[in-house]
Write a structure and sequence with these properties.
Number of helices: 11
Largest sheet: 4 strands, antiparallel
Radius of gyration: 19 Å
CATH superfamily: NADH Oxidase
CATH topology: NADH Oxidase
Shape: globular
Oligomer: single chain
Helix content: 40-55%
Structural class: alpha+beta
CATH architecture: 3-Layer(aba) Sandwich
Bound molecules: flavin mononucleotide
Strand order of the largest sheet: 1-2-4-3
Length: 222
């Protein structure tokens, strides 16, 4: 195997946002499910996993969101897989919510006394440390930010497998949410849309990668 440093650098140098997909080429189920495992295993604050992923195969629904998804038109038209990344609502992420009770006890298997301690810690984190109740939207914004971790892990996992991908925020969130809720894709009491991501195989070459130099990006304080 290649030197691990070279492997990492090659991988990130060669991961590109795919700007056009070959509609004939499909990502295998095994590759897709491996990418989804990378999402599922992603870290989150306190391990609360404030996300859900929708694999949108329904062509009728894709057609309905396409007019509001300028950044996803090429992905919707040609990609093999389109995934909508949902974020938990503020109500579900408040320290004393039913969802957090469920995950602490049923998923993380904390006994009652430890679960209560974690809830108290999370309350002071949300109230005092991060001040997530001080303005409307702060708690949801904080939650939604975490969904970029599985998004990023999916991009990297796809690149390792040689699958092309596109992270997508180029859509009108209100309009796409309206369509998906009307179609019964998710319950808005528990989720909102954070972003989308598509997978497939490119049908054109990428622009050369451009990035600021390291000395502009990294400041070392001794
Ligand atoms: C959060 C996020 C949202 C993005 N939204 C879109 C999008 O809607 N459509 C698109 O074609 N590219 C989108 N991009 C891709 C960026 O334009 C791309 O990552 C950037 O230009 C760097 O290019 P590279 O990914 O090829 O290195 C998005 C990227 C990120 C991280």
């Amino acid at each position: 195997m290649k030197n691990k440093r070279d492997f990492i650098l090659d991988l990130f140098q060669n991961r590109y946002t795919c700007k056009g997909y070959d509609p004939e080429k499909k990502v295998s189920d095994e590759d897709f499910m491996t990418i989804m495992e990378a999402a599922r295993l992603s870290p989150s604050s306190m391990g609360y996993e404030p996300w859900k992923f929708i694999l949108l195969n329904n062509e009728g629904i894709k057609k309905k969101i396409r007019p509001y998804s300028w950044g996803a038109e090429k992905a919707i038209d040609g990609a093999s897989h389109l995934v909508i990344i949902l974020s938990r609502t503020a109500k579900d992420m408040k320290y004393d919510s039913d969802y957090l009770k469920y995950i602490t006890r049923e998923i993380q298997n904390f006994p009652e006394d430890l679960a209560a301690k974690r809830t108290a810690k999370f309350k002071s984190f949300q109230e005092d440390d991060f001040k997530l109740f001080e303005n409307e939207g702060a708690l949801y914004d904080w939650t939604r930010m975490q969904t970029y971790i599985p998004l990023t892990n999916m991009l990297t996992a796809a690149a390792i497998l040689g699958v092309d991908s596109t992270p997508i925020e180029g859509f009108n969130i209100e309009k796409v949410e309206k369509v998906l809720v009307e179609e019964g894709v998710y319950d808005p009491k528990h989720f909102g849309i954070a972003s989308m991501i598509s997978f497939g195989y490119k049908n054109r070459e990428h622009r050369e990668k451009t990035r600021r130099p390291m000395d502009e990006v990294l400041k070392i304080v001794d």
